[in-house]
Amino acid sequence: MDLNHINLVVKNMEQAVALFTRDLGFTLTINRNNKMAVLENNNNFALVIWGQILNNEENLPVYPKNFHIGFYQQDKETVLALFGKLSQNEQLKFESGPKNIRNTFGFYFYFENLMIEISVSPFKENIL
Known about the structure:
Elements: E1 5-10, H1 13-23, E2 27-32, E3 36-40, E4 46-51, E5 68-73, H2 76-86, E6 92-94, E7 99-101, E8 104-111, E9 114-120
Parallel strand pairs: 1-4, 5-9
Antiparallel strand pairs: 2-3, 3-4, 6-8, 7-8, 8-9
């Protein structure tokens, strides 16, 4: 069974689409008036970005504690390069810089209230 998509709710659609396309390698497939967008990556994985306005709510969406999405990178150098790029974005909040976490190397950051993890796959050999 393959995962079809994940639906994320955000307040600022334009910034979310920019983050996922410009910085995280997704391609915009559908954008419905900056209220809902579908993005895809090279693995045929779809990410649906749903604007909070469609929920008839003004506030930032709230995710459960520890809910997050994660993206694997090829190696430690790629993680460091992506951190350098993302850390220039003033809309993002970082818990810390890249470091050893569990059995891998990576970092966490927040877009609005959504936590995102960037790390090397812990299933690769000799990552640390």
